[in-house]
Sequence to fold (247 residues):
Amino acid sequence: MARIAVISDVHGNLLALEAVRAALKKERPDAVMICGDLVLNGPDPVGVVDAIRELESDGALVVAGNTDIAVADFDYAAAFPSLMDGIPESIRSAAEWAHDQLGDARVDWLRRLPSERRWRVGDMLLLATHASPGSQTEGFDAVLDPNVTIERAARTDARVICCGHTHLPEVRDLGWKLIVNAGSAGYVFDGEPTASWALVDVDDEQVGGEIRRTEFDALAVSNMLSARGLPGDVYRAATVRTGKLVR
Fold:
């Protein structure tokens, strides 16, 4: 039997990430997959990158998300293809701030992250991706047409697709594929202001996933964002405080 932890969408929230790391020490997973969107929006991108690099040095598989592209290279069309009318100043200012905070060495690390990683348990393949196989921006939204969901899931031979992007934690069993969306360990949108992450258990040919929730000091993070004072921070602070997307 193997146990895999899945973390995604930390978004610069070090307090939430450290709470999840403490929970992982109790679970002692065999592998950790970190599915991107590491630094944008939150108050401590430096602390988050350093913590994730520690996890990586211990064997964690880390991939980049779409907002990591925005922070590393300011390629906003690649990071936010749905924003056809232009990129809001709130996003640009947050990306530039995070980029400057990180400095050259951490930005270079962020830039070198792959878009996908794979891990095998016996004959079973698990994929770590940000949104869906082959895409950092096309996620498994709950309201997605079922045919589109199947088409996106079919882009990989992996039995288990570990992802994030939607900020809404979910385990969806398609029968032939298991989608484990870890939600967000730092910026969740489902109304519960905790860090969401996931555990995947593989036992021979059987596989199952479970969403976990870990408390952190959401009010402290909200206050840090309010004090930073970038465009949009009042909404980011409210989002972290309430666990609901405020904009």
